[in-house]
TrEMBL record, chain A:
GO terms for cellular component: cytosol. This is Purine-binding chemotaxis protein CheW. InterPro entries: CheW (IPR039315), CheW-like_dom_sf (IPR036061), CheW-lke_dom (IPR002545). Gene3D superfamilies: CheA-289, Domain 4, SH3 Domains.
Length: 153, 690
């Protein structure tokens, strides 16, 4: 019996990305963000999500892609890994699909400008679309932030 | 039978008992002749043993049992307390504590205590003292008065006696019903029902009628004849829900006689706390039987006879939940206040004003609920100081005052280690050795004062010793040697600043490094810990007279009063506790001195900080203004002016964590949610004054 994964699909530019549904707590429309000074440029600030203060990062910035204006389609995907909650700003998020775990291939070196270590793999969907599966632990890797910070600062 | 639900109760009570054991043991050490204290210790140890055995922690139970044996000899004057015995006892208590901690952490409470057990055994068997051997028979007269055995009449006695002779099993059964039980009578009836299916209840106390009408506290006792095994019975009884514990003591003719004798001698017996004996060991010889009867009855020392306390134990997590819920309420309150003032509806405003008053009262109560007396931290110190003084061969009197002062639980949880460190420091580096003290004309016994008291919105904890104090020159020398300051810097420093060097990283003034108070890696940790709690620590010292460490702590950490300020589109909260005052300054008053902006404030020059510059605020810059609002903040004695665009007002804010993802940001201590639902960052004034 093959393992099926439920995946939330969101877009950055033209690429489609996927995060396992159990890692995603909620998807929110854009809301006011309180800027946090003296942090990395892709950390957009903190939001009040029903009484909990959650940091929000721009996923485009995190992957060193060009940041764009926020639109009606812009969403904040709140993910939770261990006891850490973080919001990802993405261009849009509007699909939940099932994929077979066997359809995930190991990622090529660079996909859409995103470094391979942030990726778990690339899933080929039945209709031929490619879905980039994120490696959340790497995306949220804190030691890297600290390093980046020391380089920038 | 699921024991888990009793585990937390067991841990709580074990800790209580261990604490009282430690305290009483210390008292006993001061008055080794006072057998009254031995009784108290004995009872605590005994209860602990019973509980441990009930919960299946065999190691814990067996070690307590060994201690009990020794204590038993002491209280029956077969053995005199001596230093060696005290030390062994204290070691045993430490081992017990470790076990309980292990259990708290989810372990089995196992520990290797063979050496302690061997020492106890040696004491017990008289090998060490070379004195009396353990005596099985115990003088009944000494203990009969504290017995609460159920009195049997002649007929009942003979029935039991005959049953034993005929080879039936006779048990003395003690049942404790859960305190949460709503239907004690029903539970008791179920116990009787179960027992009567396989044997006969000869006598019950309180009477069967009283029990069924719920006229009993939580426990009842009975004599029971059966053919069944103790284990089987126990299992049967424990399978009835809401039965907290059951103790079965199998009786033989001799013990039966003893029990009845005692009961007869007992005066006005109370049914209250039941005798407790390890359940797994049907007790057959007379000595532990005697112990079994030595339960905490009213005959204890006056201290024990405290009125039943009108308190309940509440799970800390529930209080945290309450606190969180209240925080939510507070945020909604500010939102409502804002809406009411916008709409201008009088009825609405009145209602909201009332709501605000009620919630302010509620806030006080919720905060008070979380308050814990510092005694919960202080109580382990006497023991620690005793051990320390012994190791260092010093004589030290620890005087604790204000142990009833209350602090928020979160502060209490964090403050223990820093205090331990400061106390160790006082004992190790502060108080001199006996010979030095005598030479200096001081009493041999050094005194360490541990004081806690309220002052305004803060609690102060002071640790003061009457030791050698801090010598400026010596301290400076070391600091220079360690590269903490240069000679020139040192020469310019005030005495206070020199004292503060003790908290510099990598510092130790003791000539010899000892394992008591570390290698100088400690005091800086103490300082940063206290600072992280929003507190402060200062040192005052008189050379030759002693040193005083004063720790200032906030009353609570979760709700603080703050001033909200605005810079462009951004709002920040400044804790009120660090604000000295607010003012408006003209642009030309800001002077450039040696590249630093300064302003004159109350005849002194203080640094002027542009918050918009520090935080890179995009839509405001104070340099463009002709007049600038400033908030004067304080850290210790030093002041600084922080420029903002506008004061919004004062508000109670709820501290919220910013999550684990963001690294610590200098100048920001956390976040809060404002009435409009927006997040505002909380300034950390300490970071602005260096």
């Amino acid at each position: 019996m093959e393992e099926e994964l439920k995946v939330i699909v969101f877009k950055l530019g033209t690429e489609e990305y996927g995060i396992e549904v159990d890692k995603v707590q909620t998807i929110e429309r854009m809301m006011p963000i309180t800027r946090v000074p003296k942090t990395l440029s892709f950390v957009k600030g903190v939001i009040n999500l029903r009484g909990v203060v959650i940091p929000v990062i721009d996923l485009r910035g995190r992957f060193s892609l060009a940041e764009t204006e926020y639109t009606d389609q812009t969403r904040i995907v709140i993910v939770g890994v261990d006891d850490m909650q973080v919001g990802f700003i993405v261009d849009s998020a509007n699909d939940v699909i099932d994929i077979k775990s066997s359809s995930i291939d190991t990622p090529p070196e660079v996909v859409g400008g995103v470094k391979a270590r942030y990726l778990r793999g690339v899933a080929k969907l039945d209709d031929g679309r490619l879905l980039i599966m994120l490696n959340l632990n790497e995306v949220l890797n804190k030691s890297e932030i600290v390093q980046l910070e020391s380089v920038e600062g | 039978m699921d024991m888990n639900q009793y585990l937390s109760m067991f841990i709580d009570e074990s800790n209580d008992h261990l604490q009282s054991l430690n305290e009483n043991m210390l008292q006993l050490e001061a008055n080794p002749e006072d057998l009254g204290i031995v009784q108290v210790i004995f009872r605590s140890a005994h209860t602990l043993k019973g509980m441990a055995a009930t919960m299946g922690f065999e190691d814990l139970a067996s070690l307590t049992h060994k201690m009990e044996n020794v204590l038993d000899m002491v209280r029956n004057e077969k053995l005199k307390m001596q230093d060696y015995i005290f030390d062994t006892m204290f070691k045993s208590l430490d081992a017990l504590e470790t076990m309980v901690q292990d259990i708290t952490g989810g372990g089995e409470g196992k520990a290797d205590v063979s050496s302690i057990v061997a020492s106890l055994q040696a004491i017990e068997s008289g090998e060490w003292t070379g004195g009396s051997a353990p005596v099985a028979k115990v003088d009944k007269q000494t203990n009969s008065s504290i017995s609460n055995a159920v009195e049997l009449d002649e007929f009942q006695y003979s029935v039991l006696d005959q049953s034993i002779a005929e080879g039936h099993r006779v048990f003395y059964v003690d049942v404790l019903v859960s305190e949460h039980s709503q239907l004690k009578g029903v539970r008791a009836y179920m116990v009787f029902d179960m027992l009567e299916r396989s044997g006969e209840v000869v006598k019950a106390y309180p009477s069967v009628q009283d029990i069924e009408q719920e006229k009993f506290e939580r426990s009842f006792s009975l004599y029971y004849i059966t053919t069944k095994e103790a284990q089987e019975l126990e299992k049967g009884i424990m399978s009835i829900s809401e039965i907290e514990s059951v103790k079965l003591i199998q009786l033989d003719q001799e013990t039966l006689q003893q029990m009845t004798n005692q009961a007869a001698a007992a005066v006005a017996v109370e049914a209250a706390p039941a005798p407790e004996v390890g359940k797994d060991t049907p007790v057959l010889d007379s000595k532990p039987q005697e112990e079994g009867k030595a339960a905490p009855a009213k005959a204890a020392t006056p201290k024990q006879a405290a009125a039943p306390s009108r308190t309940i134990r509440v799970d800390i997590e529930r209080l945290d939940v309450l606190m969180n819920l209240f925080s939510e309420l507070l945020i909604d309150r500010s939102r409502l206040e804002q809406l009411a003032s916008e709409t201008g509806n009088n009825d609405l405003s009145d209602t909201v004003a009332h709501l605000s008053r009620v919630s302010t009262d509620l806030q006080n109560i919720v905060l008070k609920l979380r308050m814990v007396p510092v005694d919960t931290v202080f109580n382990r110190f006497p023991r620690m100081i005793r051990d320390l003084a012994k190791t260092l061969d010093k004589k030290i009197d620890l005087v604790i005052t204000g142990a009833e002062t209350e602090l928020d639980r979160t502060v209490i949880d964090e403050i223990g280690d820093p205090l331990v460190h400061l106390l160790r420091n006082a004992v190790d580096h502060g108080v001199e050795s006996i010979s030095e003290r005598v030479a200096a004309g001081k009493p041999e016994m050094g005194t360490v004062n541990l004081r806690a008291f309220h002052s305004g919105n803060h609690v102060f904890i002071e640790i003061e010793d009457d030791g050698k104090g801090i010598y400026r020159d010596k301290l400076l020398q070391t600091a220079i040697k360690r590269g903490v300051v240069t000679e020139e810097q040192g020469a310019k420093m005030s005495d206070d600043e020199v004292n503060q060097l003790l908290f510099a990283p990598g510092f130790s003034t003791a000539d010899k490094i000892s394992d008591i108070s570390g290698r100088g890696v400690g005091l800086d940790v103490v300082k940063s810990k206290i600072t992280s709690l929003g507190g402060n620590v200062t040192i005052t010292s008189t050379p030759g007279k002693g040193t005083n460490f004063s720790v200032q702590l906030p009353l609570t950490l979760s709700i603080i009063a703050a001033m909200l300020v605005r810079l462009g589109s951004e709002k920040y909260a400044v804790p009120l506790s660090s604000i000295v005052e607010t003012a408006i300054v003209q642009r030309e008053q800001v002077r450039n001195i040696h590249g630093n902006k300064m302003i004159t404030f109350r005849e002194s020059l203080i640094p002027y900080l542009s918050l918009s510059e520090v935080f890179g605020v995009p839509d405001f810059n104070d340099a463009d203004e002709k007049e600038t609002e400033i908030v004067v903040i304080r850290k210790g004695e030093r002041l600084a002016a922080v420029a903002v665009e506008e004061f919004i007002g004062q508000s109670e804010i709820v501290l919220k964590s910013m999550g684990t993802y963001l690294p610590a940001i200098e100048g920001i201590s956390g976040a809060t949610i404002l009435g409009d639902g927006q997040v505002a960052l909380i300034l950390d004034p300490n970071a602005f004054i260096k």
